[in-house]
Amino acid sequence: MTTIQSLEEVINKQVQRVSELQMATVFLQNKEGLRDALLEAKQDIEIIKKGIFGLAQTLEKMKNQNDVCKNLSSLFSNLDKKIVHMSNNVPVSLLEHLAKSQPQEGKTPIIKVTKTSEKKPDPLEEMASLVTNDMNTEEVKDCRKALFREAEDSYSIEALTEDEFSRIPKYMIGRQTLANINAFVGAINQIMKAKYSLLSLGKNGARKKGELDLYLQFKKEESDVKGTGTEKIYFFTADDYLRETKMKLDKTKLNLMTVLRHCKRIHELRAGKNVRYQVITSL
Question: Per residue in 151-164, pLDDT tens?
């Protein structure tokens, strides 16, 4: 059945056809100019693409720097806590030893005593006010070492340097960054601190803290690991990592363990299915 079209519809179609032909004619007449315009547009797109890639790299660097800043903030916070703990827990026996070590002949120590209270003076204030007229520099260093060196120095591992990081094989490091590895090192140091702080309390201290069972478990694990001669071995286990971080040693973290073994920060001690990770503090 033939469709009957009105004269107006036929005219509109013809006008549209003529418009399309005119546009095609313009394109054909100016094809050289269009090609140049397309080439310029392509160059602009390439420039924009490179700019976006540069911004992505800058953002990645900012992200890594942010991770480093977070790690530094955590380290400063831990250092501040350590300083407060040290200042509040100086053994009285060390203070007495310091007082006795002062020269007595013609060099009387000057002790400042405040009369604002009749109570026994604070040992810290007494130590701070103790001054010797002619004290040897080495004596100052020895006293400082005796007063402020903690066992934590023996089981804390050092963060990796950029030079060490650059020498790690690419197949081993994968996509991990230096900030990620050092954050993992910080987590290990926190685990070691929690473990050996508990052990330093002794049995009675652990009982008062309500962690006697954990203390006895640590002591049993230590008795199973023997060092060479008088060397003491400091180590942690996967259970210690889970207890402190609430996370398991998954494949990614085990890969980081491999990196730390390569950089001589840890050493695996295997006994059957049991794996203990010994920290190495002397590089």
Answer: 555 789 999 999 99
